[in-house]
Amino acid sequence: MSIVEDVEALRRIPYFATMDSAKLKLLAFTSTRVQLAQGGVLCREGEPGDAAYIVLEGEADIVVSAEDGRDVVVAHVPRNTFIGEMAVLRNAPRTATVVASSGLVALKVSKDAFFQLLRDQPAFAMELMRELAERLDDTTVQLRDARARLAALGA
């Protein structure tokens, strides 16, 4: 894919829809294209959060290790999704593994480029905060429901 095609793909993602073309070109140029076959690992739980990813094509599963050692799929990520930003923002190890559930093409955005994007693009920063708040709300609802089920079981 060319830079022009990457810019068009980025423009289809709500975070970047209103961003200036020159900024999108810079983002595409400074990012690294990653291609994975189904089952390929984009990033692993416990690794440093050195980059975020933009899924341009394909889909992925977010997988965490359970206490009993089993892998548990906790989310499914479609194309046009920005992922991996939590570890970058927290400067912490990744909390999950991202596995391609189909062929996958993503842009890897370095930590430095990600923070530059936050500084230069307030609309992007606001949209990211909105998305993170929605995820937190969803997680809170799931936790409340799980606690209610456990209470009903007498645990």
Spell out the blueprint of helices and strands.
Layout: H1 3-11, H2 21-30, E1 32-36, E2 41-43, E3 51-57, E4 60-65, E5 71-77, E6 81-83, H3 85-90, E7 97-100, E8 104-110, H4 111-120, H5 122-152
Helix pairs in contact: 1-2
Give me the CATH architecture, please: Sandwich
Distance between the termini: 53 Å
| Average predicted local confidence, pLDDT | 90
Quickly count the helices: 5
Number of strands: 8
**CATH uppermost class:** Mainly Beta
Q: How many domains, as an integer?
A: 1
Radius of gyration: 17 Å
Note the main attributes of this structure:
8 strands, 155 residues, alpha+beta, Jelly Rolls, four-stranded antiparallel sheet, 5 helices
Descriptive account of the structure:
The strands form two sheets. Strands 1-8-3-6 form a four-stranded antiparallel β-sheet. A four-stranded antiparallel β-sheet has the order 2-7-4-5, with no helix packed on it. It has one domain (32-152): Sandwich (Jelly Rolls), CATH 2.60.120. Strand 4 (60-65) and strand 5 form a beta hairpin. The protein has 155 residues and is of the alpha+beta class. The radius of gyration is 17 Å and the shape is globular. The protein has helices spanning 3-11, 21-30, 85-90, 111-120, 122-152; strands at 32-36, 41-43, 51-57, 60-65, 71-77, 81-83, 97-100, 104-110. The longest helix is centred in the last third of the chain and has 31 residues, at 122-152. The chain starts with a helix and ends with a helix. Helix 1 (3-11) packs across helix 2 (21-30).
